[in-house]
Write a structure and sequence with these properties.
By secondary structure, chain A is an alpha/beta fold. In chain A, 39% of the residues lie in helices and 28% in strands. Chain B has a single domain, classed as ABC transporter involved in vitamin B12 uptake, BtuC (Orthogonal Bundle). The chains are: A alpha/beta, B mainly alpha.
């Protein structure tokens, strides 16, 4: 069953067009990677999907319902959450308060206790740090908190914008393993990454963006074997 | 000598009490600044409207000014919501929108002043009430009950707002938006609704401050607002963002400094001292005395 469909998307900022006729789909239960180098349009794609910016043209369909014009908070209520670029935590709030804010929508608030246990089981460090101010944590912990906060909204589809950015390789592996556990718990994942190898390793399918256009798409295992992908993104 | 000392102490006390009201007006301003990075130049004029609410309530219905404080909170809150939709919301997310709010709120300020001048004439008014005829005395310093009430209720209002910000769902959302608007949007907060509520709350508080001041201030007139604008902005800068108790301290401190200024210079020059403090704070500690230098994460 299809959870997300993006059709003929043109988008950008002011008079700068970044995305050109982007088409994507994500099936329920998948991990889908959105790959590409810096400036290829990954962040813009996720921002349009999450409703942080309006597209110039095109259509976004979530669970069979068109959401192109819907404001971001209504998309969260429908089960679509974004772990944004740069984490975007509430720095003067504690870890616990950040997580509580994650469960802001009425649907999520009902499951607050349950969700907390779930997030703490995925990221045990957050339980230890629950009274610490988010702004004082290390980059890796902040990334976990940002993912945890997004999970608190009980998303059916979680979009992550470069969760590996600025993190040590060991932490990247840890976070990616947790993404696989989240998938097992029923969360569909759309993962924008520059760390192409790690992303291809855990995803089922992948899209490659180049200067705002999807240039390659297919099963991750096949992409990992393609010469053009290996040369351009895996340095081989 | 002793009598002089007492006069000084008396003056400083009166200004310190005024400082409590500064804290309340400054709180509204800093909430609005925090959530939408907008400077509300009409804040003092809305406080002036609060004064007139109390005045007309007494004249028309004989209502106790303390009841008018609640009425002014609702009336001005409602007006604040309307003004927000006219002057802030249409521009705030556009490029250069924060700067644009300087102009739109200045426009609102001029419109409010002009309408008030047409309706109520420029001549100052005051009204009689029981609170200003009762005096409290401590160690030779006299205060009217009206001033004592204005001071205490201002601080109570600041405390209540603080509790609201800490405990209620909307209060937490307001804090979230001021700490990180993008973060607020991705957790599902309707940011434009929070902006509306915050503006209404800030303006409502200005209305309450206006009512409290009107009980002892003999100078209710359409152009009374700007004095409060200046003092409240200095308090906001002095206190820094994110510390409600800092606002109380800064309010009383600025009031006291004004009092000292009126003693050592003349009443007309008291703003010079206030602005000197203002400039010093900006130079030495731009995040304010209590504000934490905020870092986006």
């Amino acid at each position: 069953m299809r959870i997300l469909e993006v059709n003929d998307l043109d988008a950008g900022y002011e008079d700068l067009q970044v995305l050109w006729e982007v088409n994507m789909r994500v099936e329920r239960g998948e991990i889908v990677s959105l790959l590409g180098s810096n400036g290829a349009g990954k962040t813009t794609t996720l921002r349009v999907i999450a409703g942080l910016i309006r597209p110039f043209r095109g259509k976004i369909v979530l669970k069979g319902r068109e959401i192109t014009g819907l404001p971001s908070h209504q998309r969260v209520a429908l089960g679509l959450s974004l772990v944004p670029e740069g984490r975007q935590l509430f720095p003067m709030m504690t870890v616990m308060e950040n997580l509580e804010m994650g469960a802001y929508t009425p649907r999520a608030r009902e499951k607050l206790e349950d969700s907390l246990e779930w997030v703490f089981s995925l990221f045990p460090i957050l339980r230890e740090r629950r009274n610490q101010l988010a702004g004082t944590m290390s980059g890796g912990e902040q990334q976990m908190l940002s993912i945890g906060r997004a999970l608190m909204s009980r998303p059916e589809l979680l979009a992550l914008d470069e969760p590996s950015m600025g993190l040590a390789p060991k932490l990247v592996i840890e976070i990616f393993r947790t993404l696989e556990r989240m998938r097992k718990d029923g969360v569909t994942i759309l993962l924008a990454e520059q760390n192409v190898k790690a992303a291809l390793d855990i995803s089922d399918r992948a899209y490659v963006l180049e200067t705002g256009r999807i240039v390659i798409e297919g099963a991750s295992s096949e992409l990992a074997l393609r010469d053009d992908v290996r040369r351009a993104y895996l340095g081989m | 000598m002793i009598e002089w000392g007492l006069t000084y102490a008396q003056l400083v006390t009166s200004y310190a009490i005024l400082g409590g009201v500064y804290a309340l007006t400054a709180l509204g301003l800093s909430l609005i600044w925090g959530v939408m990075r907008a400077v509300n130049w009409a804040h003092g004029d809305l406080l002036m409207l609060g004064m007139y609410v109390a005045y007309w309530m007494v004249i028309l219905s004989g209502a106790d000014p303390l009841i008018s404080a609640l009425i002014a909170f609702c009336l001005l809150g409602g007006l604040g919501a309307i003004l927000h939709l006219i002057a802030i919301e249409p521009v705030v997310e556009k490029p250069g929108g924060h700067e644009a709010t300087l102009l739109t709120t200045l426009g609102i300020s001029l419109v409010i002043q002009s309408i008030a001048l047409i309706l109520w004439s420029p001549s100052p008014r005051s009204y009689d009430n029981i609170y200003k005829s009762i005096y409290l005395e401590y160690a030779g310093i006299r205060t009217s009950l009206a001033e004592a009430i204005a001071f205490s209720l201002s601080l109570i209002a600041v405390f209540l707002v603080d509790q609201f910000m800490r405990r209620s769902r909307i209060g937490k959302a307001i804090r979230a938006v001021s700490q990180n608007p993008i973060g607020a949007r991705v957790v599902g907060i309707n940011v434009s609704r929070i902006r509306l509520l915050t503006f209404a709350l800030g303006v409502g508080l200005a209305g309450v401050a206006g009512v409290l001041v009107s009980t002892f201030y003999p100078n209710i007139r359409p152009l009374a607002g700007y004095i409060w604008d200046i003092a409240s902005y200095v308090v906001v800068i002095f206190a820094g963002l994110g510390s409600i108790y800092g606002v109380i301290f800064a309010g009383v401190a600025i009031g006291t400094i004004e009092g000292l200024g009126s003693i050592f210079f003349s009443n007309a020059f008291r703003n010079i001292l206030t602005f000197s403090v203002f400039l010093l704070v900006l130079l030495l500690r731009p995040q304010g005395l209590f504000g934490k230098a905020m870092r986006r994460v």
